[in-house]
Design a protein that fits this description.
mainly alpha, membrane, transmembrane helix, FHIPEP_CS, FlhA, transmembrane
Length: 150
């Protein structure tokens, strides 16, 4: 999640840095008569929408990172609480309680981290996707065709 967060942050920063230049280009095209008022409004809306998107993705990546950290902390708490419950409530030895509840907690931790992994991967793909007109599937296929061997 750290890599996706950094990519989202850089994408948002680059988009915001490029925004004044894009706005000036729209104004120049409007003043030169290359586009009309309606087209200028449409292009300005597209620029604002792009900036909002990258800003939102930056915030979403920070949320996913926080969620993953919270999940790891909960996993450690579950291990300790499970051992305590195993010893006190089920009269297990500390070793047996640790073996049983660590195994259960690791399974729970893995299951709880899968959504964060999927969301992080999807966000990374969306943010780093180029702006060509090709579909996402054809872009992925083309990437694999470039270097077919690992």
């Amino acid at each position: 999640t750290k890599g996706v967060g950094r990519v989202a942050e850089v994408g948002a920063r680059f988009t915001l840095d490029a925004m004044p230049g894009k706005q000036m280009a729209i104004d120049a095209d409007l003043n030169a008569g290359l586009i009309d008022d309606a087209m200028a409004k449409k292009r300005r809306a597209e620029v604002a929408e792009e900036a909002d998107f990258y800003g939102s993705m930056d915030g979403a990546s920070k949320f996913v990172r926080g969620d993953a950290i919270a999940g790891i902390m909960i996993t450690f708490i579950n291990v300790l609480a499970g051992i305590a419950i195993g010893v006190m409530q089920y009269d297990l030895s500390a070793g047996d309680a640790a073996q049983v509840f660590t195994l259960l907690t690791v399974g729970d931790g893995l299951i709880s981290q899968i959504p964060a992994l999927v969301i992080s991967t999807a966000a990374g793909i969306i943010i780093t996707r180029n702006t060509s007109e090709d579909s996402l599937g054809s872009q992925i296929t083309n990437q694999f065709k470039i270097h077919p061997k690992a």
